[in-house]
Amino acid sequence: xxxxxxxxxxxxxxxPRYGMAIRxxxxxxxxxxxxxxxxxxxxxxxxxxxxxxxWFAPTQRWFKVDADDGNVYVLRLDETSGDWEIAAxxxxxx
Length: 94
Fold this sequence. Notes:
By secondary structure, the chain is mainly β. It is built from no helices and seven strands.
């Protein structure tokens, strides 16, 4: 299985340097905000069907998610500020 690169040509980053800020509804486990369940693009709620992959950095957490709009998103949590953003997405629908 190929490694997913959120910055490759197959995934389109949002914005010139940083991602798009979003609100995220999370499953709160023993570490607090652990996994995204849904996120909002403006007033539109997009449910997460599956967390396909996850990876961690010292102050960031990344989640590759399959969303109910048929697209794949990479969501990033800045653990220092608590801010979420869409770091990348891949349109999979027609």
